[in-house]
Every structure is written in structure tokens, then in C-alpha cells.
Predict the 3D structure of the following.
Amino acid sequence: MVKSKDRILPAVIRMVVLVIALGVAGLGAANLIITKSAANDVRTQQTQNKKKLVKALNSQNPTLNKLNNATTAVFSAMTTYHSQADYNARKSHVKAYLTDDAYKSNDGFQLDPDKRVEHLQLNMSYVDSQFFPTTPMDQPSVSGQVFVQYSSWHTDKQPQDGYVVYDATYDTDQNKFSEIKYVGQYNISHYQN
């Protein structure tokens, strides 16, 4: 009987140590799951805080709010069309956001005399835009660059996202763009890993 007690006691001790080790390992895995969940919660909260901050900044700065509204209105009209008629009418939709000189100019609104939009059945939809000022916001005229994200496609093809850049000047007294110049396409794929 003594021999079996000598064998059972070490086996029980090993089993207890194993149960404790599994319990500790289980707590570690639980902590890892909690940590991932907490990280996701932090990311979600940061996104919500950023949206609240932008909204607060816009409400505190009426010029910035008007500039952002004008940027969205103008560049969504410029990059949304589904026919040649839509393409040709883009500028007329944003006349209220352009000074007379900007409305008369075709620098930002590329013309299509060869009707490529119609012949190629091109479609484009606005996704987002952002005005990046290069001059102080408290000046009578704010210059900067506008990055516009859009989605474009041929009639039966999959949409592809693209980016276009414009130089723009916003007249803060008139609350209108006084100048819009097409700079070119921005190929973001060169900068992605």
C-alpha cells in the first residue's frame, strides 16, 4: 500500500500543477481576447471623437464650415455624371458657389468636345473631397489644393476608385470659389505597400 501512495501522490501533484498551468494559460488567452476587444473599442471611440472634433471645429469657424460645404457641393457636381448631358451641365449646378470669373473659366471644368463620355459610356460618382489650405484661413482669400476621390466605370465594367487634384482659391467675403484649376490625377497605388 505504501508503494501505491508513493506513486499516487506525485501523480496527483503533477495533475494539480497541470490544472493550475491550464488555468493560468486560459486566463492569458482571455486577457488576449479582452485586449483585442479593448483595442477595437479604442479605435471605434477614436473615429467617433474625430467626427465630433471636425463637427465642433466647423461649428466654431463659420468660414471653415462654408468652405467645406462649398467644396463638397462643387467637387461632387464636377465628379458625378452618367451621360454626356450630365457631363456638360456640371458647371451650371454649382454657379452659386463660383464667382463670375470662375464660372466663365474652364480651367477646372474640362470640356469634352469629342464627346468621349458618350462614346465610351463613361460614368463617374463622387466619393469624397478635402480642401487643404496653403494660406491662412483668416485671409479674404484662401488658397489650397482639393483632393477628390471618385469612382468611375464604363457601362458594363467594375467601378474603379480614382483621385484628382485641383488648385483652388476660395473668396471668404463672397463665400465662393474664385479659381479652380485642374492639376491632374493622383495615383495613390504608388504610395501603398
